[in-house]
Amino acid sequence: MNSLKFSLNKISVYILYLFPIFIIIGNAAINSVIITIFFIYLLKCFLKRKILFSDTFEFKIFTYFYLYLIFNSLFSEDSKLSLIRTIPYLKFFIFVLIYKDIIERKLINLKKLGFFWLIIILVLSLDIIYQSIFGYNFFNYISVSNVRNSGLFMDELVAGGFLLSFVFVIYFLINKNINFFYLSLFVSFFIIIMFLTGERSNFLKFIMIILTVFYFLSKSRLIFKNLSLLILITTISLLVNSFSNFKERYFSTISFATNANLNLFDTYFTSEYGAHTISSYLILKDNLYFGVGNKNFRNECKKYSVDVIKAQKKIDKNEKGKYSNGCSTHPHQIYNEFFSEHGLVGLIIIFYIFYLLIFKNFSKKKKTNLNIICLIYMIIYFIPILPSGSFFSTFTSTLFWINYLFYVVNIKTND
């Protein structure tokens, strides 16, 4: 029995080492390995004749969260569609619990993990550089856009989101403390890669994390912090001026309006993202308390397409203009998603759960730099307006819960 437990732990450790590769391969690979972890958990429960981690704070809150999601799906507009996403979501909670236990029991060397993950993201980064120069990646895949480089992600334009969630985690897995010089070199390289992905929202979030680390986490003198800020601004300026097509990508208007004199808000609401916001508002208006249910935006938005376009024409005052109908697989912003699919009551429940998971945990023990950087990532993820992936999708959830894992884990116990 002990040898079986040892083998199960070994498999779990190997999976974590290779986890970024599974993410790059795609959702099928992610789901396969996380489900494997789920079955390892069940087997461990069977061997020990008890429900593991049931006495932990996280287990209890995860249970409440999961029960709410099931409730939301059962009473959604299309419960079958919603339950298909919701029922398997339990695997993310088990993933966090299993690896929290493994790390705190010192079954994995975090520094070695950091170096192994660093090799993976460096290969991805080199592929993005190669693709930005030649127009295709190492596997001769041509990007769907000349200002969006996906690298090893092929047709999935998500490399920026992936790097955003891993770069700082990796740095603090390798270095417990902040070495200002090495950190500056580290982020200078990856800010170039983030820029080349063409993902505007994630690039901006990356800059926010850099500034937060330099000015709030680093204990260096203010003059060095200001010097780093100057270098950061210079680097971005050089990138913008060196890549004219990327300059247009980052600074061109997002609006479909023909009127160039619209204010900031009207410019936003006549863009594709603004159309999603209008659509989400209309859905919320008709489903105020519990929304239309998890994963149901994609169907319900079709009912409001005409009204969304009318609202944009009213802003632009151009009846012949072409506008987004506000319909997509998800509304591309976390608050739009929560409001439209979970309503006001659902939003309050979800945010109270996150408050318990994140801020209730904050006062329990002294936090390390790794814990804090993951907290910063999660806070920035919840910034309004900035576009984001669907929170409950496989890819986005994986990145979020990876950061939550390293936020909540007590790494003081791991050398």
Give your account of this protein's structure:
The chain has 415 residues and is mostly helical. Helices cover 69% and strands 0% of the residues. It is built from 18 helices and no strands. The protein has helices at residues 2-25, 27-48, 57-74, 79-86, 90-104, 110-134, 159-174, 180-197, 200-217, 222-242, 244-251, 264-269, 272-286, 297-300, 305-316, 334-362, 369-381, 394-408. Helix 6 packs across helix 8 and helix 7 (159-174) packs parallel to helix 18. The model has no long low-confidence stretch (mean pLDDT 91).
Describe how the helices and strands are arranged.
Blueprint lengths: L1 H24 L1 H22 L8 H18 L4 H8 L3 H15 L5 H25 L24 H16 L5 H18 L2 H18 L4 H21 L1 H8 L12 H6 L2 H15 L10 H4 L4 H12 L17 H29 L6 H13 L12 H15 L7
Helix pairs in contact: 1-2, 1-6, 2-5, 3-4, 3-16, 5-18, 6-7, 6-8, 7-8, 7-17, 7-18, 8-9, 8-10, 9-17, 10-11, 13-15, 13-16, 17-18
Care to give the gist of this entry?
The chain has 18 helices and no strands. It is an all-alpha fold and 415 residues long.
Task: Offer a few descriptive terms.
415 residues, mainly alpha, globular
Number of helices: 18
**Helix and strand succession?**
HHHHHHHHHHHHHHHHHH
Shape: globular
Summed over residues and divided by their number, the pLDDT gives a mean of 91
Radius of gyration, rounded? 22 Å
- Number of DSSP strands? 0
Residue runs with pLDDT of under 50 for 5 or more positions: none
Question: Which structural class do the helices and strands define?
Answer: mainly alpha
